[in-house]
Amino acid sequence: MRLFLDTASIDEIREINAWGVLSGVTTNPTLVGKEHQSPDEVWKMILDEVHGDVSLETTEQEADAMYKQGVELAQKATNAVVKVPMTPDGLKAGRRLTDEGIKINVTLVFSPGQAILAAEIGAYIVSPFIGRIDDAAADGMHALRQICEIYDVQGYETEVLAASLRHPMHVVEAALAGADIATMPYDVFTKLVKHPLTDAGLKRFDADWEALQAELMKGGA
Ligand code: G3P
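Above: inputs. Below: predicted complex with SN-glycerol-3-phosphate.
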């Protein structure tokens, strides 16, 4: 399962990228808005920093305008992936983009039925929003498992990207469900690496090592 960062913060991206585990980035208008800079500048920094897929979201509502914006976004870099929403206009624009060989990520997907539509237009990625399904008092992981199973049974090549992940167990469960990609905020990445027994184990190793050095010094070895 590829791991993506769900952020538009170049500092967060640089930090996690340095770990060697980052395969891509997803952005949306809310995340870009938090940077308080021109979207073009924000996207350029991210596209230059990350070697993998970077999703850039369309903001036009109507199919023709969305298609034109999608073409412009795709031209920004070879690793740009165009995000379109799961709406009739998004499907229409998305189909035109995929027909031209442009990689799209169909976003704001909340049901297996919507995921089938995304696959049928030849989307490169489909993004079910797990946490937001949970927020609506439903079972986001159940929806993800159904989507993965349907794609498997039907032989759809569209990659399943588990989005709106809120904690490390969401990432683990997405991997078990068979998601191709998990995108998560910076704080979930930092929680994934942490374990109290790792910290305690390291402290003990450090102390034992220092004790050995002191013993050798004392013995004049
Ligand atoms: O990638 C989609 C994601 O940004 C939504 O996450 O936490 O706003 O539901 P959240």
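The two ends are 50 Å apart (CA to CA).
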